[in-house]
Structures are given as C-alpha cells and as structure tokens.
Amino acid sequence: MNNMGKQYETVIGLEVHVELATKTKIFCGCSTAFGGAPNTHTCPVCTGQPGSLPVLNKQVVEYAMAIGLATNCEITRVSKFDRKNYFYPDNPQNYQISQLYLPIARNGYVEIESGGVPKKVRIHEMHMEEDAGKLIHDEWDDTTLVDYNRSGIPLVEIVSEPDMRSADEVISYLEKLRTIIQYLGASDCKLQEGSMRADVNLSVREAGSTQFGTRTEMKNLNSFKAIARAIDGERNRQIELLEAGKPVIQETRRWDDNKEHSYAMRSKEDAQDYRYFPEPDLVPIVISEEWIKEIKAKQPELRSEKLERYKREYDIPQYDAEIITDSRIIADIFESAAALCGKPKKVSNWLMVETLRLLKEHNMEPQDIRFSPGNLAKLVDLTEAGTINSSVAKEVFEKIFADNTDPERYVEENGLKTVNDEGALKSVIEKIIADNPQSVADYKGGKEKAIGFLVGQAMKAMKGKANPQMVSQMLKQAVTESDS
User: Fold this and answer.
1) Is 280 helix (H, G, I), strand (E, B) or coil?
2) What is the CATH number that goes with domain 422-481?
3) Are 149 and 46 in contact (CB under 8 A)?
4) pLDDT tens across 398-445, in order?
5) SUPFAM superfamilies, per this entry (predicted)?
6) In angstroms, what is the C-alpha Rg of the chain?
7) Are 130 and 96 contacting, i.e. CB atoms less than 8 angstroms apart?
C-alpha cells in the first residue's frame, strides 16, 4: 500500500527559558554578569554547600509578574517553589529549585501573524527557577570541567500549548516574546549568550486527524536559523519513519547545527522521576492585588501600542515605524530626537539607514548604542539648515555613533561648515572654468552632463564643504556668460 500521497501536519509547542536581567542571582547575592573567570561569581548557596539557605530575590518575582501580565496570563495569588531532584555535575545541590504545582503565571497568550492572518498562541504556564552551571568538555585532556558562574541565575520558563504548525509560526512567536521581554527590560534575550533558549516539542500527524502524534523534544538551539532548520529536519525525520511504518520514539534529541542533524540524547520511555516536592527552605509567595496593580502601573508602552501611536503622531511610513519599534532602545532615541528637532522623518532616516548599517558593520546590538538623541537631533538641524551638506553629515554621524561627539562643536572645530558665501566661491568657479575649456564647450554645445563634471571639480577644490546646489547654479551662470 502506497502511503506517499498522505498529507502531514506538524504540531509544535515550545519551552522557552529566559535569563532575567537582575544584577544578582535568584537565591544569593552573587553577580549575574555574563563572562567572568570560571567559578568567580559563586558562593556557598549557588554551589550547593551543606547548610547554606536560599533567600528569594524580589526583583525576580517582579520581572516574572511583568512578563506574565504582558502575555495576558493570570498571576497566581499564592505561588510556591518545588524541588526537582536529579543528579548531574552541573547541578551542585543535586536538585533544582523550580515551580511545578503553583507556578507564578498561567493561561496566557500572545498574538502572532501567520500568513498575514492574526493567530493566538496560548501559554500554558510560566514558572521561575534557577539555572544550572555549565559543563565544559576538554577534548585535549579528555576531561570535563564545571563552571558554576551560571548556577543560580534566575530564569523564567514559558511553556506554550502545542498551537504552532510551522517554523515560521515558531519564529514569529519567539520574536514576539523577545520583543515584549526586551521592552519590559526583563532580559536582553541574546540567543548567542544563552539568555534566551528554546526547546522544541514536535510531532506530526495526518492532516485532518485530531489525535496528537508521538512528540520528541529538541535541545541545543541557539539561533532562530538553527531553530527553523531543526524543525524542518525533525519534521522530515518523523514523516520518513511513519512512511516506513516505524514508530516515532518519545525522546530528547540534540540538534547539531553544523551537521544539520539531530541525534537521541535520552529516551523518555521510562521518564526519569524528578520526585518533585515543595521546597522546604522557601516560604510561599503571596501576591496581593496592590502588588499586581503596582507592576501594571510600571509596565512600559509595548511595541503594538507604540505602532498604533506612531500612526497617529508621526508622519512616517508604516515600514519605518515597524523597523524603529523593533527595538525599544531605537524607538526611545527616535521619540526623543524627533521631539527635540521636530523632524520625525529625518530622524527615522538616520536611524534606519546609517545607524542600522553601522550596527551591522561593527557587529553590535541596539543595546550597545552609545549616542544621545540630543546629538542626533542637532545633526538633523545642522543638515536641514544647510550648515553642513549631506556628505559631511555622514562623516559627522560616524563620529556621533562612535563617541557620542557633539556635532555642533565637531563641525566648528574641524571647519566643516558649508560655504554659502558667493564671494568665496566666485574665484574657485572662475579657475575651474579657465582650467576646463573642453567641458565648458561641451556644456554650451548641449551636453548637460558636462556641468556635473565641473560641479565635481569645484566641490573637490572646496574640500567638499560647498553647497552643491549653489555651486551648480553659479557654474551654469558663469559658463553661459563666458566667451569661450
């Protein structure tokens, strides 16, 4: 019997771990800074020394509540921590403090676009937990070392319902979550540094079926591209098994992005029993209505709200608005600079073209931007007033981008003001006409292009500081009046 005509549907749910942007860890005062020499951001609590006791970081709860509210979740009024017991060298206590029975938030959703149509992806629950340490495998010595700097860094785990049907929907969902969380300032969500990680639960079923297929869980995904490739790879692997009449085994698989292949890590057939029980060293978190109101009042304007407001307030295209609001940092610079100079479209052009180009060139993220909105607004004013021309403006912007240089002072100190003085230009233009009789004759003979060459020569003589329109106008006039 030929099964090749069957149509399959992919069913995907995600578990997303997000490292929270607190200065200290979840249960101790150690630093959460990325990097640092191995085992230097540690203490008896986060290395699991006997007799040490955890103390909950209040900021973790507030960030978790903020993310819960921004993703339409119900906040759990009495929330508790549980111990998840397992033995692994990166887990020094031999248990992880997490939440199973009463997580901080439940029953939420985010809206994504799927093929141009809005779609809700439901969030089953969201819980707080501590991160584990990091194992480093030394191929040379054939040994494994452990760094506990990451141990105890606060995480929220956001568990979706199996509502996604393609890699595109998964990426849309992750981008939406990332934007919300970055806007809240709750995490920088850098996938390459592991501050946002996604495990993908995926199964396939025949189109039209309401039964779920057997799912696998894929780990080790540290970029959107890797996630998309892993989804396509796993979907095809499961379909091939079903087509061959073989069962899909429920297991955890590890994705190797270099080989574009996943391989089994451990089977979930005899799912390891984590023996969850209530964490005895931490009291329940009782969340009052007042506390929820306080967090709600502090929530910033999120991207979807900004887009609506930009339509009303700024005369910029929707495309510009979408690119600018993709990063809260760029949106904040845009709003402040536009308020200072009153020219939103000009500000938007500098951000969308030059700023994004320089970020890419220097391999930087928007959060690495150092320049102030005030200096960008001054540059727009200088250009619009004709004080500097556009090529000088680009040179000045590179200085602003690198060192937040004051453009007015820089232009003054380096003599970059556009020469609008007819007297100063007149002698230069006379010399250009005398030195280039052929181009003058060509222009007079009807070759419009010849004037472009003459303008270029004049600009060169003025070291690029003249007003090109004025130069062109004066040249045309002088050529017409000349006898050559």
Assistant:
1) coil
2) 1.10.10.410
3) no
4) 989 988 988 888 888 777 776 555 655 666 776 677 667 666 666 666
5) GatB/YqeY motif, Glutamine synthetase/guanido kinase
6) 30
7) yes
